[in-house]
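Narrative of accomplishments. A recurring question from our advisory board has been how the design workflow behaves on a single, concrete structure rather than in aggregate. To address it, we present the structure tokens for one chain from the evaluation set, followed by the sequence designed for it. No filtering or post-editing was applied between the two.
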């Protein structure tokens, strides 16, 4: 394997002398392989510098693990708590201005928190993906409202990720 080439799951499977599906199961923590096999695959993955391909996982699951936050400015008092809650849930938070809704939709953002922009909330609601309106403002059909208080970030992320 070239030193500059990206290490793929198939490379880990070959080096660990297991099937591709066994390597996947071992690295994703799912049941189906013995603990010695899991430990061997994980050790090989670490040694080779394997990093899971998020885009491949997204194609399989239909989810990007990315949440959006549309706000008028980055000085939002909720930005840090939203980012922390998203990270705690295994998601990345992307911040955009109100005009960035179409960009976020094209990027496959899984859900959106909107603060201070009825237009952005209305535009996102048309995507059919989860929407949380933070504080006051128009609440489109299917959206959830979260009050702007100390727990707003965690509440908004929880509302986006709750099963429909």
């Amino acid at each position: 394997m070239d030193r500059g080439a990206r290490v793929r799951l198939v490379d880990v499977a070959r080096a660990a002398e297991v099937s591709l599906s066994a390597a996947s199961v071992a690295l994703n923590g799912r049941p189906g392989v013995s603990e010695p096999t899991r430990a061997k695959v994980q050790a090989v993955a670490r040694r080779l510098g394997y990093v899971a391909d998020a885009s491949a996982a997204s194609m399989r699951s239909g989810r990007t693990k990315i949440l959006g936050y549309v706000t008028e400015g980055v000085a939002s008092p909720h930005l840090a708590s939203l980012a922390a809650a998203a990270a705690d849930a295994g998601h990345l938070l992307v911040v955009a201005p109100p005009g960035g809704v179409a960009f976020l939709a094209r990027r496959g953002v899984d859900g959106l928190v909107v603060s201070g922009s009825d237009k952005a909330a209305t535009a996102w609601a048309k995507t059919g993906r989860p929407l949380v309106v933070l504080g006051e403002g128009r609440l489109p059909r299917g959206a959830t409202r979260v009050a702007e208080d100390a727990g707003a970030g965690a509440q908004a992320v929880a509302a986006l990720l709750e099963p429909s």
